[in-house]
């Protein structure tokens, strides 16, 4: 098997419209298409970042909360590459997004920080 890359990341939101506004309006993703799956009472939106397919955004009725603190087994977070973590953090804070402080990755010397989507899912900014 030869993996060619990551095809997509799926996110389940408690409020589809609120999360769509966050990922598109705040983070700059583009909504490629969305489908209402009536049989599951679920929305699915395909979001792209800089022309690349990145996130499938889903809604389901009453999804259970995911344990995030303390860190739970499973996918930990989604990291976005940025030129300036500090500048991106200022933009997120101005948009009312909860952000942690900027820190330096001890293994690479690069700046990074965590922030949180409307459902408190951890996201990361990482200096390229």
From TrEMBL:
GO molecular function: metal ion binding
Sorted UniProt keywords: Metal-binding
One family name in Pfam for this protein: Glyoxalase
UniProt xrefs under InterPro entries: Fosfomycin_Res_Enzymes, Glyas_Bleomycin-R_OHBP_Dase, Glyas_Fos-R_dOase_dom, VOC_core, YwkD-like_dom
Domain VOC: 5-128
PANTHER family membership: FOSFOMYCIN RESISTANCE PROTEIN FOSX, LYASE, PUTATIVE-RELATED-RELATED
Annotated protein name in UniProt: VOC family protein
């Amino acid at each position: 098997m030869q993996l060619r890359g990551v095809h997509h990341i799926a996110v389940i939101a408690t409020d589809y419209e609120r999360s769509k506004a966050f990922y598109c309006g705040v983070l700059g993703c583009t909504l490629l298409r969305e489908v209402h799956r009536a049989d599951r009472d679920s929305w699915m939106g395909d979001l792209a970042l800089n022309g690349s397919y990145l996130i499938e955004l889903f809604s389901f009725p009453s999804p259970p909360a995911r344990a995030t603190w303390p860190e739970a087994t499973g996918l930990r977070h989604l990291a976005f590459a940025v030129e300036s973590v500090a500048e991106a953090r200022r933009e997120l804070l101005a948009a009312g997004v909860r952000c942690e402080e900027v820190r330096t990755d001890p293994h690479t010397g690069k700046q990074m920080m965590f922030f949180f989507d409307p459902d408190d899912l951890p996201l990361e900014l990482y200096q390229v």
